[in-house]
Design a protein that fits this description.
The complex is a heterodimer. Chain A is α+β, with helices and mostly antiparallel strands. Chain A has two helices and ten strands; from the N terminus they run H-E-E-H-E-E-E-E-E-E-E-E. Chain A has helices spanning 28-40, 62-73; strands at residues 48-55, 58-60, 77-81, 87-88, 105-108, 112-120, 133-140, 147-151, 164-169, 180-185. In chain A, strands 8-7-6-9-10 form a five-stranded antiparallel sheet, with no helix packed on it. Chain A has a three-stranded antiparallel sheet with strand order 4-3-5, covered by helices on one side. The radius of gyration of chain A is 22 Å and the shape is globular. By secondary structure, chain B is mainly beta. Chain B has one domain. Helix content of chain B is 10%, strand content 34%. In chain B, strands 7-6-5-8-9 form a five-stranded antiparallel sheet, with no helix packed on it. Chain B has a two-stranded antiparallel sheet with strand order 3-4. Chain B is globular and about 80 Å long. The interface between A and B is large, with 45 and 38 residues.
Chain lengths: 189, 165
């Protein structure tokens, strides 16, 4: 999706470097300015430290997403058929075009193809894999919409729009989208 | 299609943000004070309101509040709230009371927890004092004050604190 939002004739964009939390990014000027202010107030050096905000939300799923996530634990992907005949994955309770209630769940996948991707060269601590990977929109076989997930491809050069992928299931399902550990390139390059 | 899978009722979807937080100049003075068992406020100049904790600037005028002022660790409850909902990071037994304390010498309410007081005795105007960690355990953070507790002093009439309630 990100690639689609960039004009083809646009000049190259400087990469945004996001440093890890272990290497603070504040520049020397900012620190000096803070310390100047601190001296005004009689403190030698501004205190700093980690501040972690975490909410362990548990969300209820409802009848449709409940089946979708239940299906993952049985190594199945479920979509839902819209009134137009197209299949939404992940499924939703209501038709986004007409608002009508939907109830026709259908099996899709497990294989699919990459619609778009974004390469993560330096994964952050809580991201799904601890080595470089891609977040990708994956259209599963039989689906008309794409599912956001992870592709473990080893290197970015192996990815392409239209590349075939297949799921790698989590060894121990824990309830959630990561019951699919990730997707892999089907031809295993 | 084949038989539908057994539905899951819910999933855990945590949200976690990790900040590298700079306390800023104003709060740094306040935090260093706590390690010395002092509560420091700040004001723009003599006779001006004392803000605790220091905000860096007077919020009414945006003027730099650079003068640090020590205030008392005793004060008056100006408002309170009974908490009956558990939270993993709160070490107090439920129910407990959160209080806004107008510390003696300050002009801004100070938010903390009240202990050693039955629920039905908590009231606006009651006098309280900070209960600190032992001196050798004091830190540069607000945990240096464990809680506030009632002290044996007469209540402050509401008229004298109503601006802060």
């Amino acid at each position: 999706m990100i690639a689609l939002l960039v004009r083809q004739d646009a000049p190259p964009v400087e990469p945004i470097v996001v440093e890890s939390r272990f290497a603070p990014t504040r520049d020397a000027h900012t620190i000096t300015m803070e310390n100047d202010m601190a001296q005004t107030l009689g403190a030698d050096e501004v205190l700093r430290g980690p501040h972690i905000l975490e909410y362990p939300y548990r969300r209820s799923l409802g009848p449709v997403l409940g089946r979708f996530f239940g299906g993952l634990q049985e190594h199945r992907f479920l979509g839902i058929r819209m009134k137009s005949g197209k299949v939404l994955v992940p499924p939703q309770e209501y038709d986004p075009q007409t608002g009508a209630a939907l109830d026709e769940l259908v099996d899709v996948g497990p294989g699919g193809e990459i619609v778009s991707w974004s390469w993560v060269s330096k994964p952050r601590p809580k991201q799904p894999l601890d080595h470089p990977f891609a977040y990708a929109l994956i259209r599963l076989d039989g689906a008309d919409t794409a599912l956001l997930h992870v592709v473990d491809a080893g290197e970015e050069a192996k990815l392409s729009v239209g590349a075939r992928v297949t799921p790698r299931w989590a060894a121990e399902p824990s309830g959630g989208i990561l019951d699919v550990a990730c997707f892999e390139l089907e031809d295993g390059r | 299609m084949s038989e539908l899978p057994t539905p899951l009722k819910s999933i855990v979807t945590p949200v976690r943000l990790e900040y590298d937080h700079s306390a800023g100049a104003a709060a740094t003075g306040f935090l260093r004070g706590l390690k010395q068992k002092k509560i420091l406020g700040a004001r723009t100049g003599p006779g001006e309101p004392v803000l605790v904790p220091p905000r860096g600037a007077d919020p009414r005028t945006s003027e730099l509040a650079a003068e640090l002022v020590e205030v008392s660790d005793k004060g008056t409850v100006v408002t309170y709230s009974v908490v009956r909902v558990p939270s993993e990071n709160i070490p107090f037994e439920l129910p407990y009371v959160c209080v806004t304390v107008l510390l003696d010498g300050a002009n801004l309410g100070f938010f903390h927890v009240l202990q050693n007081c039955p629920l039905d005795e908590v009231r606006i105007g009651m006098r309280v004092q900070a209960h600190w960690l032992p001196d050798d355990e004091l830190q540069e953070n607000l945990a240096s004050i464990q809680y506030f507790e009632p002290i044996d002093e007469p209540d402050v009439p509401f008229d004298r604190i109503k601006e802060y309630a």
